[in-house]
Protein 1
Amino acid sequence: MHVLDFEKPVKDLEKQIEKARELAESDFSGLQEKTVKDLEDTLDKLKKELYSHLTGWQKVQLSRHPDRPYAEDYINNISENFIELHGDRNIGDDKAMIGGFGSIDGQTVMFIGQQKGRNTKQRQYRNFGMANPEGYRKALRLMKLAEKFNKPIITLIDTPGASPGLEAEERGQGEAIARNLREMSLLKVPVVCIIIGEGASGGALGIGVGDKVLMMEYTWYSVISPESCSSILWRSWDYKEAAAEALQLTSDKMLQQGLIDGIIKEPLGGAHNDPAKTFKNIKAEIKKQLKDLLLMSPEERIIARVDKFSNMGVYAE
Amino acid sequence: MDTKFVSLPCNKGKIMPWFKRIKDGILTSTDEKKEVPEGIWNKCPSCKKAITTRDLEDNNFVCPEDGYHFRIGSKQYFNILFDDGIFTELDKDLKAADPLKFIDKKPYTSRLQEAWQTTELNDALRSATGKMNGIDIVIACMDFSFIGGSMGSVVGEKIARAIDYARIHQFPLIIISKSGGARMMEAALSLMQMAKTSAKLALLDQAGVPFISLLTDPTTGGVTASFAMLGDFNVAEPGALIGFAGPRVIKETIGKDLPKGFQSAEFLVEHGFVDFIVNRKEMKEKFTHLLGMLQEGTKAKKKTA
């Protein structure tokens, strides 16, 4: 398992406990069960202490943890019979954006999400979760399909940004995202958006206009990544920690600002420490949100959705 | 090498002045002072020829030599498009707050103070309503001189309100974009302005009110990825840089130089994202004709109904 710098004390202690337990189980050592128990208590305290005082930058690191569940993992573990649908019917199939129908305890939903890869080959195949215009157009095609068949839409956001490149510009990256923002505002079906990892800027928002926008506990969502922010405003790559604080990009800060509708708790240490529990939490939250949203009429949902985004912004008058 | 200074004989007090000031003091009264002083020379960044500010202004800030479009702001665009430069400004008292107490190398509040003082603008966009060749319209125009024309809460809110105004009064809307993108110092609040303006445009679209998006140099980032690309008519000024990712970012990503003309207005027409390019001198007439044709249709429809 990949260990982040700030998690080292926890991981070291975990190793010690493992060894101590082995010793305690063997007859020849004088090590008591109680000693092991004490160590475990220390570990528990240490973990609680560490994970309740994470800095913005540490949460950004957790959001990018290579062992974290990705969109596909969530879809496969919270729904049955997922049928993936491909292509934007125009230029191709964007591997960084996946989607299709799945069933959550009998309720058919349309899943759409950015997909990252786990090894070098997969990462390249998925373009690091950075979608091209055809990815956003595929997402919109699937959203319209969901609308046609009156099925709710669940988007799973996890991207370091929309792809910057020659082809992306030629094919209108800006237009593709802009169109999604406009079209998503008026979708007749419920839309629940969940940030499951990184929520970087327009690339994230391009599938992020929903009735309910939720963030997993250890994720980030902002207008720019802390690294790029550091490079532009500080003119150096060295201020990413400061930028992460200044941007107030963590789930708790985003909720305080009223820019998201809720936070989905993660197991201690992050989603990857207990994926089963993570899937259970997110599934329960999706079901709860859909239940509420389905009580509203399409018109009520659209008015509330447009009003919600219209009220975002702080200014003096 | 040794350097020797040679002192030249100086006839102090005996030099004939080249110009003689006959009267003391500056004699031009404040009333006589022109907004744009005459006789100040501008160099065209494209053809390097010198042009007087007066000539430039008379030519709508287009170089008479090679047609280069100088970067101008809301003041000049309002003068060009509104009849006799007459308009009523909307929501002009909206000013930026600093909700995040954002500090990078310097506090956001100091950046704002500086921008308020140097530009005499309240933020990076002004919106107004008035007549264009007799047609009632709403124009929202960005000012690049204010923190790079960046979109924060004020820009987003003013655009949203301008869209609402256009929708309620059924006046055609023109948004003139000129921006580096979202304002980082308002972080996610800036990001959400993209969703807000696009949602408002969805309502305008439903209401059947025409929207011309004028893309000027430069239009990039979150502005391109929201309202700027959502026009019924996307129109650009010649040579304008228009893109989602900035050229520097793309260059760094792909590791090679960008082809000539990449992300230019002409490039966007070629790739199908801009309807046409308009010279600033013909802009008002062309927009009037376009909107006139649409209005004709509406009237005919009303008659048959």
Protein 2
Amino acid sequence: MKNKDERIGGRMSRVDAQLKVTGAAKYFAEFEVPNLVYGVLVPSTITKGTIKSLDTKKAESAPGVLAVLSYLNAPKTPAYQTDEPSKTSSGRGPGMKAFHDNKVYFNGQPIAMVVANTFERATYAASLVTAQYEKSSHQTELKSNLDKGITPKSKSLQDYQRGKKDAYQTAPVKIEAEYIQPTEVHNPMELHGILAQWEGPDKITVYAKTQGVKMTQQVIADTFKIPKENVSVHSQFVGGAFGMSLRVWPHEIATILAAQKVQRPVKLVITRDQMFTIAGYRPHTHQKVGIGANKDGKFVGISHWANVQNSNYEEFTEATVGMTRFLYRSPNVNTTYRVVPLDICTPIPMRGPGEATGAFALESAIDELSYALNMDPIDLRMKNYPEKDPEQDLPWSSNHVREAYQLGADKIGWSNRPKEPRSKKENGMWIGYGMATGTFGAHRREATARAQLKADGTLLIQSAASDIGPGTGTAMVQIAAEVMGMPADQIKFELGETAFPYAPIQGGSATVASVGSAVHEACMALRQQLVELSGNALKKAKVDTLVYEEGRVRSPTDRSASIAYTEILKRNNLPMLEVTKEAKPGEEGKKFAMYSFSVHFVKVHVHPTTGVVRVKHAVAVADAGTIVNHKTASSQMMGGAVGGIGMALQEEAVIDHRYGRYINNDLANYHVPVNADIPDIDVLFVDKKDPYINPMGAKGLGEIAIIGMAPAIANAVYNATGKRIRELPITPDKLI
Amino acid sequence: MKTSKKTIENEARRDFLKQSSVLSALVLSPEKAIKDPNWDEKIAAPFEKVPLKLEINGVKHTLNVEPRTTLLDLLREQLHLTGTKKGCDYGQCGACTVHSDGQRINSCLTLAVTEEGKKITTIEGLAKGDTLHPMQEAFVKHDGFQCGYCTPGQIMSAVACIREGHANSEDEIREYMSGNICRCGAYPNIVDAIMDVKKGGQTV
């Protein structure tokens, strides 16, 4: 019998759930490797300058210490001798050369690594390393350096103009406001690091916390100038990442160098405070939005400027102003993006990169405009819905955002929203409702899957994909179960190994669309082969008219003309049937504008005296095409909403600019949402297949889950209190 | 009974060997030990370590540990019980939650030597053979996790939350589970899982 939960659209529990709830799932730091030793980093204590001298003697003579690695004695990295650091592996490589010279680019930059035979000994010895510096003056503050913004090299973030520049200024009703996003840190629960081992003079094995084993492999191969095949990367389980593992960080290369130096496997697990300083963040961003409309609400023009925190040694950009160009119909739009180089680590995409920040500005401004026009914010958005993408002038592959507005409004009880701000109380609290839209490109990349149908009737599929938490393996098993007509427990999907066929990074909400398509095509190819091997009766029929069910293929008309897959293999004396299929996007991206959409609704309570904001109910609606697994997809949307609550109300990494150093870099002082901060969250899906993007019709979900949540809360806070907070997080001090 | 006695190899000669306590130990050492090329390390090691007896998941362990070793690092790095996770090492995230004589504790804030004679239960000791603990079943059913890294700590905390009598309402669960951070944001599902077990009335 067919179990619908195991097929596309089902609610199957995760295939790796048992391993995760029993503690058997192994993350990178948990592999037992003989002769393993431990690396601990020594951070710089200045923000900018050079190291004059490094005293490692005490550390070197401490018990158990094998080496103290620094620019003074680290093995020479082949690529560092020639290439510019940022050119390694097209931006996925470490932008800074680990232990290459005595330069200090930011506070907390690793200047040495102590390697010892126990973690405790390495930690103690690292405290014995001292450095003398030649200090230079530093700049870490965005606000006082806004005038130093430069136009990035990135093609997609050049100044954009459609129609007249700053046309909003001429509109009868207009809003012009500045919005500030503080630095946010990914802080996945698993600490970053790597376990590295040299298997020979040109052969490296690593256990990594990565969002792409093939990406990590390529970077290591390029850095050490060894054949790609000689680099093995293992990363089956990743304890969250949210973007921070989309590149190889300098401390990973440093660990490989340490392993080379001591000729033993070295494990580095960085500390929670180092998670703030050396492994990326969502950049602090100052934005300005100008938006103008006619009295009927039709937009006249939108202008969006963003000044984004960046490091001083490489360029990072994200699509902060991207959605402003296409989310609404407006004849006149211009956007400007500048990077502001500062003496800090380089940012890295954090869930809903750019768009989450941009949506806070754009979707807050539209809410402000709705009050100026005395219009319902949903009506205002509906009024400016673009029938096609105004930026690329292409039809949408699918866009059901209007249906999403309706679903969410009904669920949250939008009709209860006070028309006047600061006009309604419930249990002594001001109550307010807010909503906002999110969008992110529905991407698809090239991917390959290998499928092996075995004589015992089981199916093994392998692809070098990652699973940082969304449930990739589960979705892949469901896609295979759907195509093959097999029970899920006979299908296994393996990922996270460089030995498997190519899969792209798990980033930009593209895994189901990319790897799912490869799994789909591999299974379709298997079906074809099975039919060809099945004998004359079925061969005459067209492959896609046949029915594939319960591990058998049969004629659509004659139920008795059926044969089991295992029987086909047996008759042909085959121990196994194997296919490897590459799946690529076609021309659809040139014909259609492909985006996922989300709409977030919230109801908040604001304490009239203390200004404490509590989200009482949240509704997240997604237009993400076909939902492969409703259980895991719902969790993903819920998780994004939780991240959005953190972004809106709690999260801010603070630097003391006198020293250029973070002052709240731990989980007691950098507040992320805990269980008591989170209300009931309802997740709704439009669940309509996108006809063009891929065989499943699935668009991405990971990013849109968070994009729009923060402005929905800010808008609800305004509705509750009449106070417009334009600087996140919305902490009580800003409301009293 | 498992025993773990790690020999220390290839280490630098230590300053404190000059200290009188070690020298007097040397005087008392048999001649054979002194001829060993690593004799100084072997004699010095016991002075840095203290004996520790504790029971983990029903297995008695006789160990020698450095006093500065945390229970978390002992579990993960020496006993290879890696189900217990390190999320912050400062007692701020709850990923390292284990039971000590039935009480939930942060194993990263607990020096192993302070657990002398205690019974420790980790996530690996919760299921009965292949039969999952009801809380593990409920986490699977309600999808109480995504990446899975905070999950062992959440489950150990959730079991204790019910045992303590702190699972009488959703709000109470939210409050008493707030020491366990889940960055993937599975909180609503975690609350559902705990409510389900609580209502099911099974012994936890």
